[in-house]
Write a structure and sequence with these properties.
The structure is a homotetramer.
Chain A (H helix, E strand, L loop, with lengths): L1 H10 L4 H4 L10 H20 L8 H6 L24 H21 L2 H34 L23 E4 L2 E5 L15 E5 L2 E4 L5 H9 L11 H10 L7 E4 L2 E7 L2 E4 L11 H10 L7 H7 L13 E7 L25 E4 L16 E3 L8 E2 L3 E3 L1
Parallel strand pairs in A: 8-11
Antiparallel strand pairs in A: 1-4, 2-3, 4-12, 5-6, 6-7, 8-9, 9-10
Helix pairs in contact in A: 1-6, 3-5, 3-6
């Protein structure tokens, strides 16, 4: 119930009009996130497993299915923003109804049912947490296109004062065991745990900051093809990118960043954010370094001298999102959760300011296409040694 | 105030979420229509002419400008649906503020000011009426894409029982005087009044009905290229059109129409509606007839034996939207009202069920691109004689 | 045979590689023009009418059909440039074979057959002349995209020295009879001859020259939205147009024009060419004038004081390409020749340097979409008086 | 000279018109391949290193640069097919001129110059071999769009009669050393050699055949989303794929394949070819197996019981094209050869019927985007054990 309540809390500052916004096909309205994360419990847990459960509204099984082919057809993704009906009030009622049914179901579940569904319920909660981050990510994008520059939160926190020492931390390489272990929750894409051979490497102790990234811009970073991957350079030309998403520039000089607090003064010491993979890789090239592989990142994740591994920005790695050896998707509809996206995407590691507390872990594999800029994504440098 | 109040009344059945919907770049949210029709009075009348008038919000001059280059830049049309802010409540306040200021301005206006602005105020009211129709047109399109099939009005009127006799009414042709005359209001595109030479022609006394149009479908109308203009046939192939917009078919058999009353049983005797020009022209070809020119239509407009000239569906003509001889746009910003759109569009005549009372007249020239289907547009046949 | 031979002569300077070029979907390879103009005689005359005629190659009926739905399916227009086979040598053989068959057919035709086909053969010759102009127009476009800037003709004619006096020539208006008359050839779109009421107007005695058009550019013509039709201004923004097609500029200063003679020094006194309708209309607006209607143009066409009516550049009119009153397309496949294109296009009058001798006449209606720039198209001013 | 001569031999069956064809932006004309592979020697070897070398034509440095940003701007890739000039005769002269200069350069080179350029010359030869395969690949695509179905080679070889036993060959896994070793040539992307940990796996001894793949089609493979990666399923829907590229079907039944021999009877025992990665992965899923990783493939490459590893079809792997640990691109312009493409692509291993003799090796990494179908690409199954 804490996880479920957090979604409600996130929507508190929003009007019904705000909650209906869809600013691009990749993003979804807040209302849709609130309904879809509820749909997951209904469609995956209650509908197939709760005896006598009556679906809230048959049509909503269609409206709020995201991409589960095995659970039937679905409303076209680019048209999620056209659903003024159901209203947000109906969605609140949907949430309450499903919550109630879920609690009753848990109370009544015998061991057999519990064995069959406990993992699904747990998955549903982690799924909802993912949508909590996406709700903020997507809302920020929509608000950024409004000339009134609305703020999601009225009061911004004071700028980061803490400036941990930036240095290189060396790791000896060798065999590393990668992937989830232990009894806690993990997504299927973090498994199976397996051994990977690493060579000696170093990670930067701190995230790349806005100031560091602005040096790259001032040095012509967005005008020098030799720094970019080929697809990245083509995208720079096509889209005219000159800075991270949400930055306002005066020439090459950063002025402000649009954020959940509205337009904010540019903070040189904050981690650079809203980069895509191409930008992260070009910066690393310019800096004479490289991005870490996801394995290097994970092997080092818990080292106490590394700052900002979690809770600041997701960190692009130099690893394509491929399946781990002997990976098998989960059985049933939830087998579509991760496996079918394992092509054309890049792994990000860590977590961000928008990630719900308790959601992240060292083995967590986030992934987005290399051109995606609207996530809370930054980078940390690596190098061989 | 009656015109202004009608806009408010039209919005009464809508939620804030409904009023934010933009279903395609050509359509606008209800909220935007309500704000833009108010902006017109502010930007064209009060701001330049009312001494001491303080603009409601400088940023709204940008947000709610539609296409007036001479009044400055504007929010991109395809992004009107992303304006969750300002809220509809703020727009209501905007309307009240401008109404009050306008009434005060009228009360205070001396003869000089009145001479300069009375025509602008009148234009603003007719402008608002145009947006009242568009509000309904655009809303219907947005609702049609919602699988829940929302109804704007709960109770539909009973199907038309009246079936006027369908026959051909002949006109002798000769010189016809075309364009607005008299002291009433007209848009600049209805002027100057001028003489046109017509040849003998006949008009069908009734509009083409759903039943008649369904015969065209059943006869393979959408599969026979010889009936279509070249661009129309290409569009049929590209979009897979098989019936008017909003019809549901079972094979070639019409089942229902989506309307402001939600999905309604198909009514054979109602005028066919939501056709584009290509469909209207193909139907006429199939029927061994043609579309009337806008001049033939206007010359006959007030004949008492013609049914449905006004108030049912706009009627596509066989006339491109070209300027009348010696046409000059109005001076100032309002010169952009009509003249700059005089290419690539087709004239429609009459008015529709969605046109506000008192808005239409015989010389009125409505216009849309030939592929547009979301207007309340149908047709009446003509032939030579 | 003179018409047929002219096509061959036009291809003389071209290599087989040149003759295969298709630079955009709207343009066709020279080889295709040579084959299609032959196909017309085979598909429209010989195949249906010549007893015992054996088709050259059944597959070519498909390959070289342009847009005749009633003559069967056809090779997709954008893929005409992919036909390396048949080779140009095979096309030459095709031409010779059809020429021979056509001459035999004419020799053998009795009165009945001749009555049925003489008009088709005549149409085929005028059709071929249209493709002779298109061959040059399309080739120029293809060559313009080659960085080597190939010249179709080695030696350019000397620049025009003649500078006829530029003045306004007034016409009284009144009833004008428009459309083809007499026993000569005309396309169906020039008929029926009919009466149009004109108001007093004046035409400029000379075409707009490069120098005059460069004044428009220097005066910010491409940066002033108030001069443009709305669609035209949008196209200027989208495509970044700054001058007529094929001009090279240094800032606002014209340097050279690409032409069939390769890159040539810019000639101030030559008629401006390779404008689209939007540019022509914007220039006229800037010049405080307007474009003539096609009827004004035709009514004045043979006046001896008007220079450049024929043989220099096609002249954009302010008339959409609508059917004349009581227009009926020809019977059979050739009914698709003109009528089905009567929407979305603008009429041009006159003829150009690329028009074959004897092809043009006062009633001739050329037509292209308003955005087309690759034709030999310019303008002449008109005004009310 | 043998490598250089092979390019000439490949072009022998082609007309100048054939050699100019570009059927899509991803493909290039034969003439362009012949010129570009020559340009490589001129731009990378002779121009910077040969004292007194005079460039053949300065403009060709622009025309025939493919993607080397550090060697200056280049002709837009989608417009390569518009270069009717230079003619193929001029390209033959270009080849002869550069060949001569290169031989002179090698004769005259002292040890210092040789040390600096021998590797570049060797790279140029392997580069030319890659374009030899692409020449055939691209030509096949262009010919496939010609309704005359031209054949590149008149006489097809007899269908494969040999049917090696299909079985699973097991490998124990463990540490495998991956990447090029020895003194022979390799591209930089095959380095550095490094150790990878493999788990026990099996490979199918034979390639997937046309018959096997047709069973997948007959079992509804192209209609079952559960078999596909998400991007793959979306592409199937968008493009309407129902079979490998170049297959003709009657319902689900294969009839013929278009090939370099023209349309050929479908050969059930031939390896399936012209699949993209999505199709290969969906087939493997359907077959209850998976694609091998590129490391599994390489570790097994020389096992004598594996059939068709080389010389039949490139084999899609389940490995994204990421850099090897400590990979560094070569210095200078040739650093752009491979490294900048290491995102968004999938590794293929082996070689095909179109690969020049002597070009392939076990460590060779070919790569294409996952949607590419026009390569000679098939698959071999793997599974865990």
């Amino acid at each position: 119930m804490a996880v479920r309540a957090h979604s409600v809390a996130l929507a508190a500052p929003l009007s019904p009009e705000d909650m209906g916004l869809q600013s691009m096909p990749d993003a979804s309205p807040s209302k849709w996130h609130l309904a879809h994360s509820t749909w997951f419990f209904e469609a995956v847990v209650l509908h197939p497993h709760a005896p006598g459960y009556r679906v809230f509204d048959e049509r909503w099984l269609y409206l709020f299915n995201s991409y589960y082919e095995s659970l039937g057809p679905r409303h076209p993704r680019p048209q999620r923003g056209l659903l003024s009906r159901p209203s947000i009030d109906e969605v609140w009622r949907y949430r309450a109804t499903v919550d109630k049914a879920l609690l009753d179901f848990i109370d009544d579940a015998d061991a057999t049912i519990w064995d069959a569904t406990a993992a699904l319920i747990e998955l549903g909660l982690h799924h909802e947490q993912q949508h909590q981050e996406l709700l903020l990510t997507d809302l920020l994008h929509a608000f950024s296109l409004n000339p009134l520059q609305p703020a999601y939160c009225a009061a911004a926190p004071p700028p980061t004062r803490e400036k941990p020492a930036a240095s290189w931390l060396e790791f000896p390489g060798g065999d590393a065991t990668i992937g989830h272990f232990g009894s806690g929750f993990a997504f299927d894409n973090e498994t199976p745990r397996h051994c990977v051979r690493l060579q000696p490497y170093a990670l930067r102790t701190t995230l790349v900051s806005n100031r560091e990234y602005s040096d790259f811009i001032a040095d012509g970073g967005y005008r020098r093809p030799e720094l970019w991957l080929s697809d990245g350079w083509a995208a720079v030309q096509t889209h005219g990118w000159q800075a991270p998403l949400y930055w306002s520039l005066d020439g090459d000089q950063p002025l402000s960043c649009f954020s959940l607090y509205g337009a904010q003064a540019w903070q040189p010491d904050a981690p650079v954010c809203h980069l895509n993979f191409y930008e992260a890789a070009a910066y690393a090239e310019w800096a004479g370094a490289r991005l870490p592989t996801e394995f290097e990142w994970e092997a080092a994740a818990t080292h106490p001298d590394l700052h900002g591994m979690f809770g600041a920005v997701w960190q692009w790695t130099r690893s394509s999102y491929d399946p781990y050896p002997r990976f098998r998707p989960l059985a049933g509809a939830i087998g579509e959760y991760n496996g079918k996206f394992m092509v054309g995407q890049i792994v990000l590691r860590g977590s961000s300011v928008a990630t719900p507390a308790g959601h992240a872990r060292a083995s967590y594999r986030n992934f987005f296409p290399p051109a995606a800029r609207w996530q809370f994504s930054g980078l940390r440098l690596a190098r061989d040694c």
